[in-house]
Amino acid sequence: MSKKLYIINGPNLNLLGIREPEKYGNISLDKINALCSEKCNNHNLKLSFFQSNIEGELIDEIHKAINDGHGIIINAGALTHTSIGLLDALNMFTGPKIELHITNIYARENFRHKSYISPVVSGIIAGFGFNSYLHAIDAIKSLIKD
């Protein structure tokens, strides 16, 4: 039976491919979803891929993962640096969690250096463009217990 992986994407990520391509690249979130789907199939993982610009909807998705998920990869976007609500929701999920960033947040503005969710995740992957998602899937597969 395959394990379920939640990939949760926060604000503005729906505009990948057109949003600041010099920072985020030219690949759309739909294309990233397709690449993640293929990678998850190779790892025998069932994928739930979700994006919202609304903090409460992201929290609701984490709550769903509490019930049937085996791992979470979260790219919370700007909410990484502001949301105690996401921190609290992620803290309730007992499986492995990876914080993901397309860019290297430590090479950007100072306010992006502080993550509210980092204290409750298993690891952080940042700075590899869309490949951050594929690296995160490989990493979480190694953390999910059989």
Task: Characterise the protein shown here.
- With 146 residues, the chain is an alpha/beta fold.
- It has a single domain, classed as 3-Layer(aba) Sandwich (Rossmann fold), CATH 3.40.50.9100.
- The chain is 37% helix and 19% strand.
- The protein has helices spanning 21-24, 29-42, 55-68, 84-92, 131-143; strands spanning 3-9, 45-51, 71-75, 97-101, 123-126.
- Strand 3, helix 4 and strand 4 (97-101) form a beta-alpha-beta unit.
- Helix 2 (29-42) runs parallel beside helix 5 and helix 3 packs parallel to helix 4 (84-92).
- It is globular, with a radius of gyration of 14 Å.
Give me the CATH superfamily.
Dehydroquinase, class II
Task: Please tell me how large the radius of gyration is.
Answer: 14 Å
In CATH, the architecture is: 3-Layer(aba) Sandwich
C-alpha end-to-end distance: 10 Å
Provide a count of the helices: 5
CATH-derived topology = Rossmann fold
Order of strands across the main sheet: 2-1-3-4-5
At the first level of CATH, the class is: Alpha Beta
Largest sheet: 5 strands, parallel
Structural class: alpha/beta
* Low-confidence sequence ranges: none
Total separate domains:
1
User: What is the β-strand count?
Assistant: 5
Overall pLDDT score: 94
Write the H/E string, N to C: EHHEHEHEEH
- What proportion strand? 15-25%
Helix content: 25-40%
Tell me, what's the shape? globular
